[in-house]
């Protein structure tokens, strides 16, 4: 008789555990959807985007919808996967889109300005700090498909909280 | 009473679709193969009219996107470097840092860091690295592991390196 009682208890406990798990799973799925398709925070650090972004590290908000609908243009700050190492994400500025002719200047290699044409489906990205940035001047134009998000807002440090413009 | 039934149904539908989207983005998904650039592995042109009507469907796993560790002969799904809205399915022929020469011309090219060379199995009609060069690994969106449709050809996709190519 006690055995039947135990089974009933176990069944109701299992049902409750399943319900709680379902709520957690639904929450995590919603989190995945928002952070992949809408908006997500990201942490950017390094010297290549001075003076726009600080060396010590900024927390930025990136919008993931814009690259999907093609809303990335000149002067936008973007999160892009590095073409040299797909596990690293860079924060750089889009300087030229496909079809444009870029005149760029690499202080480390030569004094003269060099010219390049951006092929179809690619963008030219550069860090704001031309003296200390590894970008399209070194690894060439990057395919648009590597762009993961457009940075539009800075959350940390608090004294520069606000929209990040052109 | 009817509205609460509709509301229930909508809730279940939304939950199911959210879970499906998450699983298909992060773990596994099933996609159709269009075109015959991967003949005879996918969409083989056998000459019989019945088979040509329907596309193959394949299982794509996304666990490889954690470490980006691929091997020669892996069939991968990637976003086209020429148009970010299109995805293609091809086989990896060479990995970063390797020297590679295609069968047709005698050029030897070194695959840059972080890039790979992809080729279709059907060399006659395939838009692949022969036209657009090595692609960054970051464009890869998953690895094809199995064919799930049509039923006669359900099975694992073998990871054999493309034929007739030499690398040093």
TrEMBL record, chain A:
Residue stretches making up the Peptidase S26 domain: 24-105, 114-156
Main location: mitochondrion
GO cellular component: mitochondrial inner membrane
Alphabetical UniProt keywords: Hydrolase, Membrane, Mitochondrion, Mitochondrion inner membrane
Highest taxon in the source lineage: Eukaryota
Subcellular location: Mitochondrion inner membrane
GO molecular-function terms, A-Z: hydrolase activity
Record keyword Membrane present: yes
Alphabetical list of Pfam families matching this protein: Peptidase_S26 (PF10502)
Active-site residues per Swiss-Prot or TrEMBL entry: 48, 92
Claim: Membrane is one of the keywords in the record: yes
Gene3D superfamilies (alphabetical): Umud Fragment, subunit A (2.10.109.10)
PANTHER family: MITOCHONDRIAL INNER MEMBRANE PROTEASE SUBUNIT 1 (PTHR12383:SF16), PROTEASE FAMILY S26 MITOCHONDRIAL INNER MEMBRANE PROTEASE-RELATED (PTHR12383)
Assembly mode: Heterodimer of 2 subunits, IMP1A/B and IMP12.
Family: Belongs to the peptidase S26 family. IMP1 subfamily.
Function description: Catalyzes the removal of transit peptides required for the targeting of proteins from the mitochondrial matrix, across the inner membrane, into the inter-membrane space.
Protein name per Swiss-Prot or TrEMBL: Peptidase S26 domain-containing protein
Protein species of origin: Flemingia macrophylla
From TrEMBL, chain B:
Pfam families: Peptidase_S26
Active site (UniProt): 37, 90
Main location: mitochondrion
Compartments in which it is found: Mitochondrion inner membrane
Residues of the Peptidase S26 domain: 7-98, 109-149
Keyword Cell inner membrane: no
Protein name as it appears in the record: Mitochondrial inner membrane protease subunit 2
Lineage: Eukaryota, Viridiplantae, Streptophyta, Embryophyta, Tracheophyta
Keywords: Hydrolase, Membrane, Mitochondrion, Mitochondrion inner membrane, Protease, Transmembrane, Transmembrane helix
Molecular function in Gene Ontology: peptidase activity
Topology versus the membrane: Single-pass membrane protein
GO cellular component, one term: mitochondrial inner membrane peptidase complex
InterPro entries: IMP2, LexA/Signal_pep-like_sf, Pept_S26A_signal_pept_1, Peptidase_S26
